[in-house]
Please model this.
Amino acid sequence: MKSRRVIAAITLPLAIIATGLTLRGLAVHQPAPALDPTQKADSILILKKEHVLELLAGGKVIRTYKVALGRGGLAPKEREGDGRTPEGHYVIDSRNEVSHYHRALHVSYPNAEDRKRAARQGVAPGGAIMIHGLPNGIEKVGAAHRVYDWTLGCVAVTDEEIDEIWKLVPVGTPVEIRP
Model:
């Protein structure tokens, strides 16, 4: 059932694109410079309002990606099931090459502050926040997935982009998610 909802959520943007509308996240971009195989990102910055994920090394941006976020809006995640992307400081704490999405980097949400806030509100904080590619089997959607926010609170990029991020981001990389 969940995969049908995700597929339905992504096919609508394709219909919109067919009408010729220009929408957020679909701008043509310049090809990125070739990857230095020895270079690794030492931090990730996600700017929710701009729908941008930046990989940084030595304080300099080495890659920028347009992203889709949680379908619950731009407010910070408060509880399990709200469909929002969290805000705060986390780390990439694991990698899953065989997830329901084309590769996934697990973000260490909830942190101690998130757990305290949820406890004060008497709710579960949720979890399973990832930076991931598209749901398996619908990779042809490509950049069209960014027309609107469709994830359950994760940060989504194209399959090609997560392949590149996968090479650049080791476990332990700090992640900051800003409004």
Q: What stands out?
A: The first strand starts at residue 43 and ends at 47. Residues 2-25+40-178 form a domain with the L,D-transpeptidase catalytic domain-like fold (CATH 2.40.440.10). Residues 5-9, 11-25 have pLDDT under 50 and may be disordered.
